[in-house]
Write the C-alpha cells for this entry.
Amino acid sequence: MKRSLMTLLIVMALAVAFVPAPAARAQSGVVWHATYYNDPYQLGEPALIRTESELAFNWGGGSPATGINADNFSAGFWADIAFEPGIYRFYVLADDGVQLFAGQRATWGQPVIDTYDQPQVGQTLTADVDFSQGGVQKVVVNYREATGDAYLYVRWENLTTGATTGTDFGRPVSSMGNWTAQYWPALNFAGAPVVTRQETIPSHDWGDGAPADGVPADYFSARWYTVRALDPGTYTISVRADDGVRVFLNRALVIDQWHTATGQTYTYTFAVPGGEHLFEIEYYEETQNAYLHFGLTQDAGQPASPGAPAQPPAITGAAATITAYRLNVRDIPTTRGSTVIAQVVRGEEYPIIGRNSDRTWWQIDLGGGVNGWVSAYYVTPRDTQDVPVTYQG
C-alpha cells in the first residue's frame, strides 16, 4: 500500500469517536464519506469530496463525476456503522482493484479483502468478520479504476440473523456502447434540443454546473437512448437522480420518478431471452445540485425462461405513423383487461402485421420479437389492403 493511503487509514482511525451506541440491525441509512482522486493511489489532494448513500456504482466507461478521470482514478470510502452482534459476511464486486477493512482490522490498516494491485474483475469476493460484540464498527473501502469499465458494489449479511444490507448485485453489464444524448434548455423537452451528442453512459454529476454549452445549470431536461444486445438472463436497472427521472425499456415505462429529488435509488428487474433491447432515459433538473447515476446489472443465478420461440412477423407492406404524443401499446386490442407492454411516441413509424375485424386496432411490430396493439384512432395507417385479421373478438 502506498504511504498516503496508509496515512489516510490512520487518520480515519484516530478520528473515530468510540462512543457507545445502541446496537441496531445493519442499517440501510449508512452515510459513506467519499473522496475521489485523479490517480490510482489516492495521492495528493482529492479532486472531489462528498457523501454516498450506498456503495453500488456502475460507471461503465464514464466518470463518477465532473472533474474525475474516466480511467486511472481512485476513491476512498469510510463509514461508522452500528451492527447487531453476529458474524458478518461482506461481499464485494469491483472493476478494477479494491480493498475492504472492517472493525479492528480497519483501525490497524489490515484489509480483509485486498485485490487493489491484483484485480479479480467480475468475481464476487467475500470475507467473514466477527462482530459478536456488536456496536459501532468502522468499514473502509478503497477502490482503483485502471481502464475500460468501472463498477463497485459492497454489501453484507449477518450470518447469525440473516439480515442483509446493501444492493443485491450480480454481474454488471459492460459499457452499453454509445448513447445518443439530447439536452433542452427548458423543462419537459420544450422546443428543440440545443445539444445532441454521443455519450458512453448516462451517468453524470454536474453539481451546480451545466451539462454543456448552451444548456443552463438549472431548469433543463435531457433524454438518452441506446439499443443494447443482451444475453439471456435476469437484469436489474438502477437509477438515482436529482431531480426527476423516467426509464423506458422497449418503449414501456418501467421507472417513473418524475419529481424533485429524494436521494433514493430506484430499481427495476426484468428477464429476457436475449437479443436487442431499446433503453431510453428522460431527466429534468430544477435547481441546485444535479446528477444522474444509471446502472445495469445481470443478476447472478437467475437465467430467463426461454419461453416459446418467437414467430417472425408477417410482411404486409403496411405501416402506421403514431399521431399521439405518447401512445400505449397493448397485448390485446382493447383498453379493458389488456396489459400495456410498451409505449410509442408521435412521429414514429412501425410495420403493421395484423388487425382486428373492424379495423379499429392495428397490430404493429416493435422489433426484437415484440409486437402489440395500438388504437387506430391515434395512428395514420398506409398500404393496409393486404393486412390479415389476426384477432377475433
User: Anything to note?
Assistant: Residues 6-27, 301-312 have pLDDT under 50 and may be disordered. The radius of gyration is 24 Å. The helical segments are 3-15, 104-107. The longest strand covers residues 73-83.
